Amino acid sequence: MRDPADNFAERKIRVIIAKPGLDGHDRGAKVLARSLMERGFDVVYTGIRQTPEDIVRAAVEEDADVIGLSVLSGSHMYQFRKVIQLMKKNGMHDVLLIGGGIIPDSDKSKLIKMGVSAVFGPGSSIDEISTFIREKSRRLK
Amino acid sequence: MSEIRDGLKRWENSKPNEMERFTRSGIQVKAVYTPLDVEGDYMKSLGFPGEYPFTRGIHPTMYRTRLWTIREFSGYGDAIETNMRLKYLLGQGETGLSIAFDYPTLLGMDSDDQLARGEFGRAGVGISTLEDMKLMFEGIPLKNISTSMTINGPAAVIWAFYILAAESQGAAPWELRGTIQNDILKEYMAQKSFIFPPEQSLKLVVDTIEYSSKYLPQWNPISISGYHIREAGANAVQELAFTLANGLTYVEESIKRGLNIDDFAPRLSFFFDSSIYFFEEIAKFRAARRIWAKEIKSRYNPKKERSMWMRFHTQTSGVSLTAQQPENNIIRTTIEAMAAVLGGTQSLHTNAMDEAWALPTELAATIALRTQQIIADESGIADTVDPLGGSYYLEWLTDEMERQAYQYLDKINSMGGVVKGIRNGFFQREIAESSYKYQREVEERKRVIVGVNAYNDNRASKIPILKVSGRYERRQLKRLAEYRKNRDFHDVSEKLGKMQKASMDENLMPYIIEAARAGATLGEIIRALKDAWGEYVEPVIF
Amino acid sequence: MIEEAISGDRKALSRLMTEIELGNEKITENLLGKIRGATVIGITGYTGSGKSTIISKLALRLINKGKRVGILCVDPSSPASGGSLLGDRIRMPELSRQPQAFIRSIPTGGKRGGLGYFVIDLINAMDAAGYDYIFLETVGAGQDETEIRNIADVVVMVMVPNLGDEVQVIKAGIMEVADIFVINKADTGPADEKERELLLILNRDSTGWVPQVLKTAAINDAGMDELMAAIDGYLLLHGGNQRAKIAARLKQLVRYHVEYRLDRLMSQELDSKVNELLSGKSLNEVVLQTLGELAK
Fold it and tell me: Which of B49, B371, C103, C131 is the most exposed place for a label (fewest CB within 10 A)?
């Protein structure tokens, strides 16, 4: 599963997987982090109980290409809104924002309008997610 | 027997080749099971229901005498809104209450806490004060109803609110029936809504067990849970083993506290998952009863039979439900509910079909309720005790699961016990591995999930979704602000100080109750304990 | 970009570090002139020894004294996929919330292992941006150990009482692994024994410093003041040795960049080189030719 364009000193696509808010259900986030690593991404998992500020700060320090938020507690509209605000404030317009967890369809479309690039609901395959990231992230390798 | 042996050989040689089959926890399943698979002593391994080792059930006549409790988990928004939903469910035939709390409450934060922003009332009801608790049960006589509260880190405080709310209705503590989940060990392993470090949290749990054994004889101070461990990714054997290990740890700590086994063991209760792989679940429940009875008997030699009973509540598996084609979830839940009933559960929650999307709508919650009623009243499954007992397959599988569970129990023992295992990440590692393995199997289509990796249709689902309105939060914040003003803060501070002083040396329940009575909020009590005990930061294991 | 980073723009510093990771040698060249002389503290030790907790406790103390602290966490990339799980910052929640701290993860990269090619350049970037102390956290296996000695001003090795064959490694005399040895989680096992073992085999270095052994329980903040003092003590004693340290670091820097160019060349040209060999050129010729290509 090596990246076919095996260039030198290339930076792998760096993905932050974060769980904003108070929900502690990290099974999906952890499985995703590990699976993405096995597909050649550099993954930073920030853990549970992160505030939007924590997450964006980590994304800035790591110069992340992708931020993935996992929310299963129902507070997704609030969390995404906050993260988007902070990303704008930090000029992170070329950073991909994706989401997963328990997010009803009606909210999905609202999130996409707000600036989330994709929402991967329960049952999404890792291949789907990793292909999407490779195609859409700013790092062209 | 030798006739069967010969017959089996002949049969195996003549049957066509076929694919290997495994249960979800990896136990290989043969094509057919015969009496050869279950050579054993009926009286020793099964016995009669209501008698040691209770494999077939803890009561002699089980559902013939009394049906399992239909207990649907509910709660959202604020206390006033939940009060209406509870009254609705009672009116529709629910026989016991089961309360879900929102995230801030689960983590011991008040609704107006900074970190609670955006979380109020979404995963359950938000309760910050004694007043909220009273409102939630307004018009519902706590003397006559049994209430289960799913709360862990701050369980002692929420319990204190409940006891005081009941008191204001004229109910004495000894009249109260119900359960607080209060199982902190599984939080470190799976659900992650811990607050304090393990050692102090365990001490607080023993405080509640002790207090309950003295003053609330009808109350179950703990619901030792496998559900969350399973949902976090463990397989059925792990769920069984880790839950039992946790249970035995609580018992051991209570004995160390000086309690007599017969004073508290009868009131320990359990909470299991019921997942879709039908027979494995039924075997799991039966093995659980048998192992628990064996261990309690051999370690503590109780005088009361009840001390060896494993009484449990079951919830059908949330993680087995799909967001795609949600109507299929009704079928899944039905199969899982049947497994729980065939496994002899004492109470049951059936999931609603829209579980993968949001909290259930009234319609979805009603269907979930009807599922249990149809099983109970139309199917006849409840007409005899342990109807599948004696099935060659089931008895073999029960034995096998017991054997594998014991392997884990021995391992945990040699590691130095559950708390040691938590600190060095053993359980988290096992769970992470199982969940990773599961995901691989799904992606490689070795495990079929209808509507997800097979039989997909791209039909958009049009089921209605529950929306939690923002006005509940506004209402709550307003009331909370008022509440904060109208109390004797001096008195509150004093009571909190006393509680902190007593925190490691004395049973905290009386202090918590006094602080609650004086008007301390949930957040204030928890913060005072955090100051005394510290907060727990988990080692992250993939 | 360098100017912005120097003026305190966190995003600019982050972008600068990315450029370095991409092999932008113009930038690394430019940075050499902007170094201020930050103190580099190397923290090495097996996974689970508590390095991150220790870094957190020490860094917070420095921040309290008004310093700015940079943290570089090196994590191994998977040889199979090239990806990595950068899981160190998650273990420093309190530190990561401090505005005077900057935490960055460095995957070692598929090819090189060890500490990657550009770790010194990344240190220089943080240095130029005004960070007074820079912690370099590594897993400490094999190669890492010699390299970190050339890079850091002081090296702390973290162990736990029960696990680890670190003592064997040190005994084998493969290297002077560290300047300060910490037996963390000292309350969980035979820490005294391990301490004794270590003290028996550690020798003085050229300045007369005998490597110190400390017992700590970082999670309870126990032993952290003592560790800070030991680090300060070491730095003070070896302050006069600055020239030698700078020389060692520069040498290592040169080595890294030579290796980078060589590896890059080889990854592109390897096939043709082998073919040349097969077509009759001698090994010596092929090697010399390759080195010649490097110089172009």
Answer: B49
